[in-house]
Design goal:
seven-stranded parallel beta sheet, TIM Barrel, 23 strands, globular, 17 helices, Diaminopimelate Epimerase, Chain A, domain 1, 3 domains, alpha/beta, Urease, subunit C, domain 1
Length: 541
């Protein structure tokens, strides 16, 4: 057999069972056909073979981000960004929103994203009145970086049905001031439900998904586990499938049956339709049934067993009680779904583990690979139960880099058991790394950097006891991600017979200083044997 492409003279990090490092890889069509030394692979080369000299650079399996929000990332690119370098104050944000309003038809939504009150000089949220000064003809919403809180103007509140007389929804807060007037701040489920009216149309979704896919490919991400978006889950799923079929979205998608709005009804629709986890193919496949149990780690609104260090009266927000969680996810398990939930605080994690244990007792199933998304605070007693129940954990190491300082403020010494990668490896609990983008940066190299160094971006140690090695972190972003979607036999490592999803870095990651891993860049991304991104021209022999 001859190869269509052969990479030689590289640091080939296979991420196989033994974490072998090789030198060369041969590809024919969309599959890997040989891995070894350049000499061993010479027989795969003929006049038609494209031979690429890596010159010692790292070649890895394509990164698999096991939890991000494809549509939210893409639709953010259509809105006003609050994370641009020139944003220093609320007034800077207001100026950009005014510009967007001037180019938007009256009555149409204007959305801003990525807001963080800690990153503006005022150190506060904007007010409804300030947004009303910009426009009362356009519904305006500013979404906090966590995607769990927002500020809306009067028009947006009116369209959402939020009035002074309205009660806060379960698991959410429609904030009012001392006089009972709406402030415009919406927290958790109140924020989520706003997007029943603030969602995007099909054309916006298609454009957004294509933009997001292209961005992820440039970051070396070849597969994503999509964790849902705002609006109607079935509608988003349909558009996503259409985009993959048309080729506009080229990344592989494992689509969770979950939505930031009305996730229970989305799961109910899929159960009633007879659809279960695994339906699809190598490009698009149905993933687990997913709900939210608690809030945001930076809000902070996660559900904890003991109060926050920053507020001894607060233990967070729960979306559902135990009976409700057991009901919807238990039925999904019974019908054959992999099940999962957003569970950040230890109280929420415990409730999800209770649900999984109850479901397995009633309807035993081997190799279920039920998951926990995030698992923010995971003390030893919960680690023990995770292992006993054979669950897959999807932590977010980059959170420690981006949010480490606030975690120390809000959770104190509990940072030593937050997203505890070292504990997961030592206890043989499978952990598939994820960015939760656009909540944080999608760059997997930053995630690897964060898990190896466990320092915040200000340089403070944040749970240094949970540091792991570079090869361990790479496997968590590759093979473990494949395992979390039942795909470890077709992708996630550089092995013969697997899909040719490959990433080439700008240098050797194993020879780079650990504190400089975040400075590495992706130079090439290949999916299905096709080079879809190339930062510099290949050194073709």
């Amino acid at each position: 057999m001859k190869a269509t492409v052969v990479f030689i003279n590289g640091e080939v990090i296979t991420s196989n069972r033994d974490n072998q490092i090789q030198e060369a890889v041969a590809i024919n069509g969309n599959k890997i056909v040989a891995v070894g030394s350049g000499k061993e692979l010479a027989s795969f080369i003929d006049a038609e073979t494209k031979v690429i000299d890596l010159e010692g650079k790292s070649l890895l399996p394509g990164f698999i981000d096991a939890h991000l929000h494809l549509t939210i990332y893409g639709t953010n690119l259509l809105g006003v960004s609050c994370v641009e370098p020139h944003i220093k104050s609320l007034e800077d944000i207001f100026k950009d929103i005014k510009m967007k309003v001037s180019n938007t038809k009256s009555g149409e939504w204007v959305r801003a994203w990525g807001f963080d009150e800690n990153n503006v000089v005022e150190k506060r949220f904007p007010t409804k009145e300030e947004l009303d000064l910009i426009s009362t003809d356009h519904p305006i919403v500013i979404i906090r970086t966590c995607n769990h809180t927002s500020i809306a103007n009067s028009k947006a509140l009116e369209l959402a049905g939020y009035t002074e007389q309205a009660e806060s929804p379960k698991g959410g807060i429609v904030e009012k001031d001392y006089s009972g007037e709406l402030t415009g701040k919406l927290v958790e489920n109140a924020h989520m439900e706003l997007f029943n009216v603030a969602s995007y149309n099909d054309q916006e979704l298609k454009k957004a998904m294509k933009l997001a896919s292209n961005t992820f490919i440039e970051a070396g991400i070849t597969s994503v586990h999509d964790a849902g978006g705002y609006g109607s889950g079935p509608d988003i799923l349909r558009v996503m499938q259409q985009n993959v079929a048309s080729g506009d979205v080229k990344i592989r998608i494992y689509a969770m049956i979950g939505s930031l709005t009305n996730s229970k009804s989305f799961i109910r629709t899929m159960i009633d339709a007879g659809i279960v986890t695994g339906l699809g193919d190598e490009k698009f496949k149905i993933g687990p049934a997913k709900i939210f149990t608690d809030g945001s780690s930076t809000g902070p609104t996660i559900a904890t067993r003991t109060p926050y260090d920053s507020d001894p009266a607060d233990t967070g927000i729960l979306y559902y009680n135990q009976e409700e969680i057991n009901g919807i996810l238990g039925e999904a398990h019974e019908k054959g779904f992999q099940i999962t939930a957003h569970a950040q605080g230890d109280r929420a994690i415990e409730m999800l583990l209770n649900c999984i244990e109850d479901a397995l007792q009633k309807h035993p199933r081997v190799n279920h690979r039920h998951r926990i998304e995030h698992a923010g605070i995971a003390p030893p007693d919960l680690l023990k139960r995770m292992k006993e129940l054979d669950v897959v954990i999807v932590p977010n190491p980059v959170f420690m880099y981006v949010n480490g300082d606030s975690y120390i403020k809000n959770y104190g010494s509990r940072v030593e058991m937050m997203y505890p990668a070292r504990d997961y490896i030592d206890e043989s609990i499978p952990a598939a790394f994820a960015s939760d983008s656009p909540v944080t940066f999608c760059n997997p190299l930053l995630g690897i950097h964060a898990s190896v160094n466990r320092k915040s971006r200000t340089g403070i140690d944040v749970g240094s006891n949970q540091r792991i090695e570079v090869l361990e972190a790479i496997k968590a972003y590759t093979l473990n991600g494949a395992y979390a979607s039942f795909d470890e036999n077709v992708k996630g490592s550089i092995e013969v017979g697997k899909l040719a999803d490959i990433v080439v870095l700008s240098d050797s990651i194993l020879n780079s200083d650990k504190d400089k891993i975040k400075n590495l860049q992706v130079e090439m991304t290949m999916i299905d044997g096709e080079i879809l991104f190339e930062k510099v021209s290949s050194n073709i022999i």
